[in-house]
Design brief:
Blueprint lengths: L6 H16 L22 E4 L9 H5 L5 E10 L9 E12 L8 H5 L5 E4 L13 E2 L1 H6 L18 H7 L87
Antiparallel strand pairs: 1-4, 2-3, 3-5
Length: 254
């Protein structure tokens, strides 16, 4: 053992290291006595805005872990204008997330078209029993208080369409003018039996007349000329195909 690796030099070096650490800032967070300083957009838990949820089931269908449970029913809303038509609306009965299955991918938050789900930096929701990690809408709604406000827009960026539509003034209605109703054709009156009256018969279209060519009658007594048969071709017939007869001297016309 060399003099450099002896007990005394090693003890001195250890005391020097301890003395240097006393003057440095500690990085150890004494949780839970001291809460850690998390980034404002850290992903802790998913919060729910129940008023924005329309039970469209889009988040439950897109969840790769199938850890979102939604139950709803339909209710009929009265018409907002006299003579209007009643409408139906989905009413949320249950919205629960099983955090023992959730892998915190955030797909449900991204696909929600009504901004009903948000990331919350809350992380203190550990339970002794894993079955208690199935949180209902009351617990999810309570976490909305921990959701930080959205970041401010970049300078020079376009104003969102939602802000522009909310700031647009409404058109003033003319004084004493009733809202114009769309004119509809009058319906035929019902008969005494309760049925609709019979429709008048439609005029029948006549087919256009077409003139056909007239063929003259054939006379049975008419004599049809008969063509005599052609004579048979012989050796002396000039029309025969055989060779012409040889003429003797003095038989010609000359």
């Amino acid at each position: 053992m060399s003099e450099r690796d002896g007990i005394l030099p090693g003890l001195v070096r250890g005391l020097a290291t301890t003395a240097r650490s006393l003057t440095r800032h500690t990085h150890t967070a004494e949780y839970p006595d001291v809460s850690p300083a998390l980034p404002p957009r850290s992903r802790g838990v998913i919060a729910l805005t129940e008023e924005n949820c329309t039970s469209c089931m889009l988040c439950a269908r897109e969840c790769p872990d199938w850890c979102i449970y939604i139950d709803s029913h339909k209710e009929e809303l009265p018409p907002t204008t006299p003579g209007g038509r009643a409408r139906q609306r989905n009413m949320l009965d249950r919205f629960a997330i099983d955090f023992s299955l959730c892998m915190y991918c955030g797909i449900c938050i991204e696909v929600c078209p009504f901004d009903a789900l948000h990331w919350s930096p809350e992380f203190e929701y550990a339970e002794v029993d894993i079955r208690d990690l199935l949180h209902e809408r009351d617990r999810l709604g309570a976490w909305m208080a921990t959701v930080p406000p959205p970041p401010a827009l970049d300078p020079g960026s376009a104003v969102p369409a939602e802000v522009t539509a909310a700031a647009k003034p409404k058109r003033p209605a003319p004084a004493g003018a009733a809202p114009a109703a769309r004119a509809r054709p009058a319906r035929p009156a019902r008969t005494e039996g309760g049925g609709t009256p019979a429709r008048p018969p439609r005029p029948r279209r006549e087919a256009p007349t077409r003139e056909l060519p007239v063929t003259p009658p054939v006379d049975a007594t008419q004599v049809i000329p008969v063509t005599p048969p052609a004579p048979e071709a012989g050796p002396g017939t000039p029309d025969a195909g055989g060779p012409a007869p040889r003429l003797q001297p003095g038989e010609g016309g000359e």
